[in-house]
Amino acid sequence: MQPSNRGVILISICAWLLLMPRSTHGLLEALNLENRHEIVTKIIGGDDVPVGAYPWFTRLSWSGCGGTLISKEFVLTAAHCMDNTKYGVFQVGALCRDDDENCAQKMEEFSARLIYVHPSYTPELLQHDVALIRLNGESSITPAKIDLEGLADSFESGKSLWPIGFGVLEYGTKFQPNHLQHVEVHYVSNDVCTESFVGSDYEGIFQAESMMCAASAGKDACQGDSGGPLY
Fold it and tell me: Which residues form the signal peptide (predicted)?
């Protein structure tokens, strides 16, 4: 199954908005997941992204994080990806890391003119983990459309969502793929997500007003997917 061509970026994910709890009867009943807790800040079980599917995806070359071009000059990413940006390159349209031709997809490179980190960013709690990057030029690549009308508020559990990134392909490894990956996961309602953390070390960490929950057995976003989009 492939994502529909709805052209809406829901939220920039991984470590700041995408939580994948895997426990409690409510979540198990909703998605038939394994009986274990896990917050995933770390694409497992995914596929190579076709040329042209996400032309606005942006790779942060120094950190391995992802981002989303949301206007000609601005990239949305995670605040925790903003360390050591002095020599960083933002690769808008990145599809293949080690291919000079980027697998025949257009790519443009920029540095940062300005970095805006959310003033309430709290690393320990994964809260407000968001940053806006003003590029040092204007991209000619069409930006992503953002959900500004509360579309996500009408989701029902089980709706397909697609995290995107260059994250590691297996737990416990540091190997990242050369080709951009995406994977299908499923939306989990706020109530079910909150309940799933009860009794775990992460109880209370899920903040419904600023976070979204998604899960699928054997399929995750992973290390290196931080800051990337959820489509």
Answer: 1-26
Considering the domain boundaries, does residue 2 fall inside one?
no
Domain of residue 16: give its range. 11-230
Strands in 20-110 per DSSP E? 47-48, 57-60, 66-69, 74-77, 90-92, 108-110
Q: Is 193 helix (H, G, I), strand (E, B) or coil?
A: helix
Cross-strand pairs, 160: 186
Q: pTM for the complete prediction?
A: 0.79
Is 6 within the bounds of a domain? no
- Any idea what the CATH number is for the domain that residue 160 is in? 2.40.10.10
Q: Show the tokens assigned to 200.
A: 């775990």
Per-residue pLDDT of the chain (231 residues; tens, 9 = 90+): 556 544 445 444 443 333 333 333 334 344 443 333 333 333 667 789 999 999 999 999 877 789 999 999 999 998 888 876 666 899 999 999 889 999 999 999 999 999 999 999 888 777 888 899 999 999 999 999 887 776 667 777 778 888 888 876 665 666 678 899 888 888 888 888 788 778 877 777 777 777 777 766 554 444 445 788 888
Is the residue at 4 inside a domain? no
Query: What is the Cα–Cα distance from 126 to 154, expressed in whole angstroms?
Result: 24
Within-domain flag for 1: no
Which residues belong to the active site?
80, 129, 226
